[in-house]
Design a protein that fits this description.
Strand content: 25-35%
Strand order of the largest sheet: 2-1-3-6-14-15-16
Distance between the termini: 8 Å
Number of helices: 7
Shape: globular
Order of helices and strands: HEHEHEEEHEEHEEEEHEEEEEH
Largest sheet: 7 strands, mixed
Radius of gyration: 18 Å
Number of strands: 16
Structural class: alpha/beta
Length: about 260
């Protein structure tokens, strides 16, 4: 049943399947954005139907909201809630301290707002997203369109002051036009090769007036779930320092794939 899935998608779906086990009836759930989060949303919709769960979901992007509604989840705007029970989201990179680089899907601002207001943040990813040092993946920074060249120049100055010698800054494009977030902002992707102190870099970037938010999520991940295409799942409770590695139920996985119509 899983022959049509790539190895990476098998891993993402396995992590997504495990993550929704944390969801209980009556919860308010933050829904991340991106390919791994899309698998999770489909799994959550199926779980809610199977178990007749009453969930309230807060999407972090227009695309996430559309998918959530397609699978039967009830969504609510973020301005209608003050806090969430749990947020489940993906990541572009995760280091040994469980600092995240996020924003590849262009929703980093809303993702950070939702994650920061959640009692529990669960990060799901294929095992290939684990790295020793952040930086190989470009760091997204969401910026206001007004005065963009000024903002870009000031960011470059900040990077220079922090001794990021090898660096370049690119404006993310959507065809011939700058990519626009759901909030109407643009994204600068910082190619840094290696990120040293993520907390210091994050605070300095956010001091630049034109910066809306950056894609470094520091001390925000509570539980990390990482899977490979063979069904091996590593679950890390970040605050307690516990790690559990086991194998997913592949019969349940195949049944899930069949029910999702993949």
């Amino acid at each position: 049943m899983t022959g049509s899935l790539s190895s990476v998608d098998k891993a993402k779906l396995t992590a997504a399947m495990r993550s929704v086990e944390y969801i209980e009836d009556g919860m308010c759930v933050g829904l991340g954005t991106g390919s791994t989060s899309s698998w999770m949303i489909r799994c959550l919709g199926l779980k809610a139907r199977r178990e007749n769960l009453n969930l309230t979901c807060v999407p972090t992007s227009n695309s996430t909201e559309k998918l959530a509604r397609q699978v039967g989840l009830k969504t609510i705007d973020a301005d209608k809630v003050k806090e969430m029970d749990v947020t489940i989201d993906g990541a572009d990179q995760v280091d040994g301290e469980f600092t995240l680089v996020k924003g590849g899907g262009g929703a980093l601002l809303r993702e950070k707002i939702i994650a920061s207001s959640s009692s529990l943040m669960i990060v799901i990813a294929d095992s290939g997203k684990r790295v020793e040092t952040l930086g190989a993946y470009p760091l997204p920074v969401e910026v206001a369109p007004f005065g963009l060249p000024i903002t870009k120049s000031q960011i470059d100055d900040v990077l220079g002051s922090l001794n990021y010698i090898s660096r370049s800054i690119g404006l993310r494009m959507n065809g011939s036009k700058p990519f626009a977030t759901d909030g109407g902002n643009h994204i600068l992707d910082l190619n840094l090769a290696r990120i040293g102190n993520a907390g210091v870099l994050s605070s300095h970037l956010n001091m630049v007036p034109g910066v809306v938010e950056n894609g470094l999520f520091v001390n925000m991940c509570d539980i990390g779930i990482f899977a490979d295409d063979k069904g091996t799942v590593e679950t890390r409770n970040v605050k307690e320092g516990d790690t559990r590695t086991d194998d997913a139920d592949m019969h349940a996985f195949d049944a899930l794939v069949a029910e999702l119509g993949i």
